Each structure stands twice: as C-alpha cells, then as structure tokens.
Amino acid sequence: MRRVAVGGPPEVDGGHGGPEVHTFQIADRTQATPTVLGVEEGIAMKLSRALCLAAVMVAAAGLSADAAQWSFHFTYSGCPGGNLQVWGTVDCQRTDLLFEGYAVNCQTYSGSVPGDPINDIIFDFWWDATCGNNDHIKFALPGWNGDTEQWELGELPPWIDAHVDGSIDFPGLGDPTGTIQEVYIIVNPAVWILDPRPFQSTYTIVNGTCPELPGYLIGTTPIVFNPNAPPGGNPFSTTPLNGQLSLDSELALATGQQVPSVSEWGLIVVTVLLLVAGTIIFAKRRQVQTS
C-alpha cells in the first residue's frame, strides 16, 4: 500500500497555516496481483488434480486377462522323468515350439497357450526308461462350418476363458511295459469338460476309445486332421489302439488371472483432461493479469 497526501503543503515547525492534509490508501496492483492469482491458481490446480485422478481411475478400470495356461505333471512312479516338448500347432501341424526340456517326475511345468493362428497344442513326451515309451497328447476344438462346409479348429484361449472355471485337469496315458511304444491321443476339451471323470490308474482302450475318457481318441499312429470329413463324423483319425494304458501324467488347461491394465481409451481420456486443466490455469492467469 502507498499513502498519498492531498491538499496544501504540510505544516512547518508545528504551524497551522496550511490546509488540512487528508491521506488515503491506493492499492498497489503489483503487490495485489500475486495474492489474487494464488487463489485462482490454487482452485485451478485442485481442479486439475481431481480431473487427473478421475482420468487415471477410468484408465485403470479395465481388466485384461493374462494368457491362458497349460501345465504338465509327469506322475508315474517307476520312471524318473523324460524329455518334454510342447508345440503350438496349426491344424495339427507343429509350428511353434513352446517348451523343451527334461521333465522331472512329480514336478509341474507350465506355459502360455498361444492364440491365432495357433489353434491346437500338443505335448510330446519321451520316457527316460527302458520301456522306451513315447506319449503324444493333443488338445483341439473341432467345429463344423456350415458356410464353408468344412471342419475348422477353434482357438483354445478364448474357449478356456469362457468355459473353464480356474483350471481343468486331463489324464495323460502311456504304456510302462513298452508293449505299445507310441501312443497318440487327441482330446476335445469341450467334450471332456461336460463329463470329466475321476482319474484311474489304468484304462482299457477298445477301438481307440474308452467310456471313462469322453472326448478322447487314442491310436498308435500320428493324429490326422481332415477338414473335409463328413459333418456327422470325426475330423480326426489314427490307427485305433486296443489294449491297456496306465495313467502316467496330469495335464491342465487354466484361465489367466485378471490384472489391471491401462487401455488406449484411458490414455486418451488422461491426455484430454490434462489439456483441459492446463487451459483453465492459463485462462485464469490471463484474467487476473488483465484485471
């Protein structure tokens, strides 16, 4: 503030000859401006923080799922383990090696189930034992396409996320005697999940099937997928196995966990609201400076 005198000259030596002096205060704009700006800017900053917080909450509100998972657990007590390969395949043709290593008895190995263009998955296991047994078990989802009049194999991850509650287990089979050294299995998980059976120590296979194994087709030659098979038939074929097999492993398909993720739309919302907040602050500053 500045004090300004109005009237004649001030009194001299205590005299009373001059006019009465009146003083009044004039606001110093250069000092008042920061005070007013601070209030307005504080409001704008609080508003911007609130907007940014809301934007971050919106951006993080969506949930995305981790990839669906496979797992393999070799359980046969008479064998220390064996070599395991897990492949992502396209119409039963191996294309992507997902895992390769020695699978130790009673240890679980797992990984992600790939999606398009991969539409099925196969486990190749070579026993580390004198029996020389080799197991090959595949999971696939066949479906008839009425438009193309052909069989197609669906993606596993969307089906797992939509139909599996946590995880679903499947028995793996082999012949520890070595009588049947090559065992090929195709499993339709959409059939097995409708009637999953308790695991047994042994299974009797007749013409490639077993009542305790719904959705399974078991043979002694590699599984072949025929998209041109009749609509009422089976698009998979093999040389049907007849004999007894033992439970040698446990396999599972599991859903991925839901985790927070920032979506592209969420990032756009954050950016827009930050620009709005910056515009408010700039406008308030200009308003105070010109007033």
Description of the molecule:
With 291 residues, this protein is an alpha+beta fold. The protein has 2 domains: 2-62 and 261-290, no CATH class; 66-259, no CATH class. It has 4 helices and 19 strands. It has helices spanning 29-60, 156-163, 189-192, 264-290; strands at residues 2-6, 22-26, 63-65, 69-74, 81-90, 93-104, 108-112, 120-127, 134-140, 142-145, 150-153, 167-174, 182-187, 202-205, 216-219, 224-225, 236-237, 243-254, 258-260. Strands 6-5-8-9-13-15 form a 6-stranded mixed β-sheet. A hairpin with a 2-residue loop joins strand 5 and strand 6. Helix 1 (29-60) packs antiparallel against helix 4 (264-290). The two termini are 18 Å apart. Residues 1-37, 56-64 and 259-263 have low confidence and may be disordered.
List keywords for this structure.
globular; 291 residues; 5-stranded antiparallel sheet; alpha+beta; single chain; 2 domains
Quaternary structure of the protein: single chain
Q: With helices defined by DSSP (H or I, 4 residues minimum), what is the helix count?
A: 4
**Range of strand content:** 35-45%
Uncertain segments are 1-37, 56-64, 259-263
Number of strands: 19
Order of helices and strands: EEHEEEEEEEEEHEEHEEEEEEH
Domain count: the total is 2
Radius of gyration: 38 Å
Sheet having the most strands = 6 strands, mixed
Q: Given the helix and strand composition, which structural class is it?
A: alpha+beta
- The span between the termini is 18 Å
Side by side, the strands of the main sheet go 6-5-8-9-13-15
Instruction: Report helical residue fraction.
Output: 10-25%
What is the overall shape? globular
Q: Taking all residues together, what is the mean pLDDT?
A: 80
